[in-house]
Amino acid sequence: MDIDENITQHFWALSDRNKKTDDECWEWLGMKDKDGYGRFKIHYKPYRANRVAYTINNGEIEPGMWILHSCDNPSCVNPKHLRQGTNIENSQDAVDRNRMAHQIGELHGGRKVSEEDVIEIRRLYSDSSIALSVIAEKYNIKISTVNIIATGKTWKHIGNICPRRLHKLGKENAEEIRVLYATKEYTRKELAEKYGTTVTSITNIINNKMWAI
Question: Following CA atoms 71, 152, 103, 101 in sequence, which dihedral angle do they give, to the nearest 10 degrees?
Answer without folding.
Answer: -110
